Amino acid sequence: MKPTIYHVAEQAGVSIATVSKVINNTGRIGRETRENVLAIMKELGYEPSVVASALTGKHTNTIGLLVPDVANPYFSELARRIEDRGHEKGFSVVICNTDNGIEKEAEYVKWLHRKQVDGIILGTGIQDNRTLHELLKQETPTALVARDSPSLQVDTVRIDDYLGGRLATEHLLELGHTNLGFMLGGLNSSSEEERLRGVRSVMTTNNLSVCEKDIVTDAYTIEEAKQQAMKILTQAQPPTAIFAMNDLLANGVMKAARELGLRLPQDISVIGFDNTLLASISEPPLTTIAQPIADLGTQVTDLLVQEILGEKTVKQRIVLLPSLVVRESTTTIARTPVQK
Amino acid sequence: MKPTIYHVAEQAGVSIATVSKVINNTGRIGRETRENVLAIMKELGYEPSVVASALTGKHTNTIGLLVPDVANPYFSELARRIEDRGHEKGFSVVICNTDNGIEKEAEYVKWLHRKQVDGIILGTGIQDNRTLHELLKQETPTALVARDSPSLQVDTVRIDDYLGGRLATEHLLELGHTNLGFMLGGLNSSSEEERLRGVRSVMTTNNLSVCEKDIVTDAYTIEEAKQQAMKILTQAQPPTAIFAMNDLLANGVMKAARELGLRLPQDISVIGFDNTLLASISEPPLTTIAQPIADLGTQVTDLLVQEILGEKTVKQRIVLLPSLVVRESTTTIARTPVQK
DNA sequence: AATATTGGAGTAAGCGCTTACCCATCTATG
DNA sequence: CATAGATGGGTAAGCGCTTACTCCAATATT
Question: Which of A73, A83, A94 sits opposite B97 (nearest CB)?
Fold first, then answer.
């Protein structure tokens, strides 16, 4: 049977209070007693029960992580970083896949609440803020990652999507492209809107406009992305470059292009977003807007942990800046866009 | 303040025992009382504390999942399936990245134990069975996935790696290749050894042999894989086909080949393993040995949950069969292997 | 009508731990 | 030498829940 604090106390000839104090390094305990208790603990292979101590009003040392889908490279890398950092700080992380469903999200949050997790990291792109409001009302430490927090008082770590959109667009314009296509996914729509805002801003500055029919949306898998890309690429006057909102979609676009016999990047330039594993794997290697995923993960975890530990009182919003990573999927424009 | 069972009991004018009974659907409770209590619970927004009930000797409804690295597509897909199934069954999963380190693994297991997780799924490829032995001794329900259990009495779900190795080799031989190269990673070495055993078996049957210098190992990233592949490909008489033990490595091989000016698949055939996202993304699309990842995930979860619930007494070993998925990275041999 | 059943609900003892508070020594102080 | 702090450690009351057991009243049984 698993030894409890009672066994240790008995063996050591002290009270359970004393044992508890040496475990937690609280109160005043003599050198000798402490060492003795420690020895007994080791001898018995005693491990304090997190459950019991949690009941006494302390922490469970657990944080909940909500993401749309861990199988998505972006989120799996993020999850890895968060787990790493959490582990360093003594927290375990329970993972929840919401598929960006408001119902699932709410259900998970309720469940995590019952489990008394110490805090929650929201990495979903849901526009609906109901769950978030609920969370804040309940005073569960909460932090947002890769998601905007429109006018809400909550710790947030995200990238500047607007800037990301600008960077991508500027890159394409510099290469001479003026007829641009865009592919949105839907996994993190608030981010995507911001990026599109960046796009529009740059386009307007350059007296260009983005044609609504060159924007396709709702693609979650590479296959769907390919199908959607087909729509854009088979138009009368197809874009010469496509900006996909994540690397997975960009790969879908490339598949479509290849199937249509277009050469990459000579006939069609493609730029992605995120700079996940997929960007370096793809052929040609994908030019993309890099998110500092590792930093997003560690910083949001730090924020949450500080909040949990009560080490900080003011909420903050951290905005990391994306950067352009040029690889081989984009190049200067070759064919004349007029070919009606 | 969060309502407790006492608040509900008071409001409903019953004892906490009664409330507990309606929550758990145990004991005998009258229709009216039950409905009344239920109503009060809803009204108060009461949520039973998992922590408290866990302390009373029940379950925490949590399982621990140990994998080398969730950022690895294979494991992230697996993790997704396990979380999905776990969630369906009412369990949350806490994720642990061991990087295949025996120390980290042991530490995680100890920690999970303190947390009183109901069970543990081991998806690591560590050869050392110490942790596993420990786990079994402690009677923590444990299940292995994608990992062998040499002579141990533990629930296991895995694929037939030997068969996988055979399938890959047979495919290459059928295409006319006789000079084969192999690239191991190290993430799951027991599996890889089995696969290699499959390879050797087929080779021997065909009066062929595998040259030790055509086997490279220890590659964890795509970059490392590329470097290692270079070694094989720049030999005097390089293989005409390479069998990589996972899709990531296969991509590294393709990168190397491309850098050396080799055409894929005409000059060099590449076959991977796992059939993850990476296999369909890559260019050319990767021929690979498909693991039924979804089934691995759900079945191992089911096994563990049954074990936890005490619904079964005999341990079992489930072996799923891999299959060959032919895409475009392999083709019949073109150049003559003799070119010394 | 007397007894046996059974349905419905309460009592109270813990689960393993934390913590506010109390008590006994021991040493430094005037 | 009496006393005020330190110092070291114990007491006991919970935390929110489950469950074995008890008790009572309403039926069913003979």
Answer: A83
Q: What is the tens place of the pLDDT at every residue in B103-135?
A: 999 999 999 999 999 999 999 877 778 888 888
What's the CA–C1' distance between A303 and C29, in Å? 50
Is residue B113 in a domain?
yes
Percentage of chain B beyond pLDDT 90 is 79
Task: Determine if residue B13 is left, alpha or beta; phi over 0 gives left, psi from -120 to 50 gives alpha, anything else beta.
Answer: left
Helix (H, G, I), strand (E, B) or coil at B218: coil
Instruction: Indicate the number of domains in chain A.
Output: 3
| Distance of C1' in D24 from CA in B311, Å | 37
Residue A26 lies in a domain: yes
**Co-location of A175 and A285 in the same domain:** yes
Nearest to A330 by CA among A289, A274, A291: A289
What pTM was computed for the model? 0.93
Question: Does residue A57 sit within a domain?
Answer: no
Report the pLDDT value the prediction gives residue A335, as an integer from 0 to 100. Answer: 54
Query: A165 and A284 in one domain?
Result: yes
**The predicted structure's pLDDT at residue B340:** 40
Q: Which two tokens stand for residue B233?
A: 């490909």
CB contact under 8 A, A70 and B76: yes
Domain extent for A191:
161-291
**CATH number reported for the structural domain that contains residue B41 in this entry:** 1.10.260.40
For residues A126 and A227, state if they share a domain: no
CATH number reported for the structural domain that contains residue A155 in this entry: 3.40.50.2300
Read off the pLDDT of each residue in A161-189 and give the average, rounded to a whole number.
Answer: 93
Q: Over the stretch B220-270, which tens digit does the pLDDT of each residue have?
A: 889 999 999 999 999 989 999 999 999 999 999 999 999 999 999 999 999
A128-150 per-residue burial string, b: 16 or more CB within 10 A, e: under 16: ebebbeebbeeebbbbbbbbbbe
Peptide bond into B284 cis (omega under 30): yes
A131 near A106, Cβ under 8 Å? yes
Q: Does strand C come within 7 Å of the CB of B49?
A: no
